[in-house]
Amino acid sequence: MSSTGDSVASSKWLDAHYDPVANLYTFSSCIALSDLHGDGENKLVVGDLGTGVCNMKLKVYRGTGLLSESTLLDLPTGLVSFLMDLHEPRTPAIAVASGPFIYVYKNLRPYFKFTLPSLEVNPLEQDVWSQAKEDMIDPMTLKEMLEGLRDKAEIPLSVRSLRFLMLEPQEMENFVLLHKEQPIRRQTVITCIGTLKKNMADEDAVSCLVIGTENGDVYILDPEAFTILYKMSLPSTPTLMDVTGQFDVEFRITVACRNGNIYILRRDSPKPKYCIELSSHPVALVRMGKNVVVGCTHETLHGYTQKGKKLWTAYLPAPVTTMALMDLPTRGFQAVLVGLANCEVHMYRDKNLVSSIKTPDVVTSICFGRYGREDGTLIMTTKGGGLIVKILKRTAVFDDRDSAPGPPIAQSIRLNVPKKTKLYVDQTLRERENAVAMHRAFQMDLSRLRLAAARAYVKALESSLTPMSASLTEPLKMNAVVQGLGPSFKLTLNIQNTAACRPVMNLAISFLYDENLYSMRTAFFKIPLLVPGLNYPIDTFVECLSDKGISDIIKVFVLREGKSAPLLTAHINMPVSEGLALN
């Protein structure tokens, strides 16, 4: 066991295995999880780069132990697991891209070798070598002619000619004698590989192989006959690839190229449909839902739509070494795992950092999925050849909020702005043409509104129609409520001290009214001490004495004891007494 997780991630991951001397040197493109024997138990398949010159091997791990290994003749550039037929038992095959070949293994045994088609040879180059074959030119003349072709020819030179141009003068004659009788061939190599479902999106559906080559071509191969079904061309050499869709329906191939651009290929379009121009070269590419996440050399992470529109940018603390998709369908959770050169692995949902893992060495490859019978398994290899296996706890919960400082998540949510209608466009044009007149009309209407509001305010002050009043000298506020249909009314006064901490005392309330219309049981009250913030209701009853269906105003005064000037004044419009009016 190893304590490779930090305090944040340790509660979410179990450290299942760590072998610092596993001697695994690989990248994310050469690692896959596959149920090779159809027993429901996934194995780890790794294309090991060895020393880069020798010891290249295809290794298969089961649990924490090495199950088998096979020697590879050249450096692997990619490895995928795919179902190539419908025969029972449904066991997937392993395709390893190496040089110009694809080695297909089934049941861990060599099954088929596919070779890329030869490229067109420059006819001028063939003519030059024919002259050398007939001893019509010497090696130095051959070198001069090939250098002229290399600088000007539209068709690149073959590997033989390029090797010849690298030789010292004393080695050229022997090279010509050894190779002049052999036909010239120009062969490209595979740079990246992926899989594309043939006609169904099911997990156990038959898949085609998709390969990118050094000369900028993308091939889709038939899964059974290994013939070329479709060919597409790119402006530059593809280095990273992500494939989605079905070949017989609709598909998208997202390719990052050596020129620093990302191209999106679609069905029935041999040329790229969209192009994304990056500010720095891409290091890793992952598709998350309908968006594409790209890690670049300038320590940045970018999100794009499948049409190439930029959505967001996240800045990283260290350069990106590798990336992989973390997909948990049972929880409906997706995130991007980003390996960094500072011995950390960050987990991002869009541009939000939701978790991080500390590793003992720089991570060079990441793979997440079902390993053995455990769904949430994270497998990583390190720069020093180590192997790390972690298992996601079933109780692990990842917050959508960003654990890094910055703007909130809501700021990155796009507003659902409706499309512009013809009415909107016509209205915009009308506003542009009549802007001055519309502004003048608006200012006129605004002035009239202000005048009407001022007049209404003055009228309310003059007639004191409002039952609410506030004092300018004391922190007091009062409002009145009249209840009842008549002839008896209940009058409630709510008095409040609006001061912050100072109480108000020695206050009294007096009523002034027409004694021919109304009578009150109590027309004078003493108010108790008013504590700040509390509401003090004071009730009294009013009797209507008139039977003519008329009403009047009752004036309320709040005074300080011993003073004649009121602190508060309120005028209450009494309702018409319904009871006497009906009589």
TrEMBL record:
Cellular component, GO annotation: axoneme; BBSome; centriolar satellite; ciliary membrane
Domain Bardet-Biedl syndrome 1 protein GAE: 476-578
Keyword annotations: Acetylation, Cell membrane, Cell projection, Cilium, Cilium biogenesis/degradation, Cytoplasm, Cytoskeleton, Membrane, Olfaction, Protein transport, Sensory transduction, Transport, Vision
GO biological process: non-motile cilium assembly; protein localization to cilium; protein transport; retina homeostasis; sensory perception of smell; visual perception
Subcellular location: Cell projection, Cilium membrane; Cytoplasm, Cytoskeleton, Microtubule organizing center, Centrosome, Centriolar satellite
Transmembrane segments annotated in the record for this chain: none
Ranges of residues in domain Bardet-Biedl syndrome 1 N-terminal: 13-266
Organism domain of life: Eukaryota
InterPro entries per record: BBS1, BBS1_N, GAE_BBS1, Quinoprotein_ADH-like_sf, WD40/YVTN_repeat-like_dom_sf
Keyword Aminoacyl-tRNA synthetase: no
A GO term, aspect molecular function: smoothened binding
SUPFAM superfamilies: Quinoprotein alcohol dehydrogenase-like
Subunit structure as annotated in this protein's UniProt entry: Part of BBSome complex, that contains BBS1, BBS2, BBS4, BBS5, BBS7, BBS8/TTC8, BBS9 and BBIP10. Interacts with the C-terminus of RAB3IP. Interacts with CCDC28B and ALDOB. Interacts with PKD1.
Designated name of the protein: BBSome complex member BBS1
Protein encoded by which gene: LOC107693830
